[in-house]
Amino acid sequence: MARMKFLCDDERCIACNGCVTACKQENEVPWGVNRRRVVTLNEGVRGERSISVACMHCSDAPCMAVCPVDCFYHTEEGVVLHDKDMCIGCGYCFYACPFGAPQFPQAGAFGMRGKMDKCTFCAGGPEKDNSKEEFAKYGSNRLAQGKLPACAEMCSTKALLGGDGDVIADIFRNRAIKRGKGSEVWGWGTAYGKPDHPQQQAPTGAKS
Amino acid sequence: MISARKLVITVAALAVTAGLAGCGEREQVVVYQQGKYQGKPDTKPWDNDPGASVYTSSKWAKGDQGGWETALKSRTQNQNEYVRIGDQ
């Protein structure tokens, strides 16, 4: 098995926020914490796009690199999880994460930061699987039940795909080809755009 | 008389030993090793009994990683409408 990944198809996402609701309901996420959210780019402008964003379960996770107490770990399936008993709520992971995935519940009357909470790929945490303790701290452990994350499984347009990276990449590739587009929907040009002035090349040669 | 004295000494020695054992100092915090996860160990998802949860459709034998992966891969295909509904 490759690594567990999410993939959001912006051609399909209709910003219904069903994934956000599913996550909240499945994991009973506290008020003020959003493990998943829908981001709309160029809202109101022709060609606007929406994508659903949560923890991307990075292979080389920056949250893991900056954590001063090393409370993060990678599971064998490539899911990034953390031990809430070790977390000191410092917020370094929030600054390091490019997706804004780490969330901090407000604890106490004076705005103190609680322990970090984030998407677990519905894989629970370091407690006995599907126990009360695991659910209270980390939410549902669907992987241990042979299920996939609730957000992806309930997505009505199947814009959000979740699962083994190789398998969902195949699903998406097949879908993109079926749309009537082929090789042009893949590759560098699609991902990063074509240069406005192709004749302009990056300077080459030795530095002066 | 001697045996009674010996008994008293033995009991006293045992009491002192037991008392001192309570004074032992245990490490209260984890020994910090940079870059190494020192939290609780996590169990593998395939180490669970699939029948333990109520609404489980995926089946695998407890501890069978390959079976769990196959079950999950087939479930992932539910997200592929070209398979689920059929190629139009």
Structural commentary:
The complex is a heterodimer of chains A (208) and B (88). Chain A is an alpha+beta fold and 208 residues long. Helix content of chain A is 25%, strand content 14%. Chain A has a two-stranded antiparallel sheet. In chain A, strand 2 and strand 3 form a beta hairpin. Chain B has a domain of 45 residues. Helix content of chain B is 41%, strand content 0%. Chain B contains three helices and no strands. The longest helix of chain B is centred in the N-terminal third of the chain and has 20 residues. Classes of the chains: A alpha+beta (208), B mainly alpha (88). Chains A and B meet through strand 8 and helix 6 of A and helix 2 of B.
- Overall radius of gyration of chain A: 19 Å
Q: List low-confidence stretches of chain B.
A: none
Average pLDDT of chain A works out at 86
CATH topology of chain A: Alpha-Beta Plaits
Corresponding CATH architecture of chain A: 2-Layer Sandwich
Task: Specify the structural class of chain A.
Answer: alpha+beta
β-strand number of chain B:
0
The helix fraction of chain A, in percent, is 10-25%
- Return the domain count of chain A: 1
Q: What multimeric state do the chains show?
A: heterodimer
Instruction: Please bin the fraction of helical residues of chain B.
Output: 40-55%
CATH class value of chain A? Alpha Beta
Compressed to H and E, one letter per element, the order of chain A equals EHEEHEEHEEHHEHH
* H and E order of chain B: HHH
As a percent range, the share of strand residues of chain B is under 5%
Number of strands of chain A: 8
As a whole number of angstroms, the C-alpha radius of gyration of chain B is: 30 Å
Number of contiguous helices of chain A: 7
Largest sheet of chain B: none
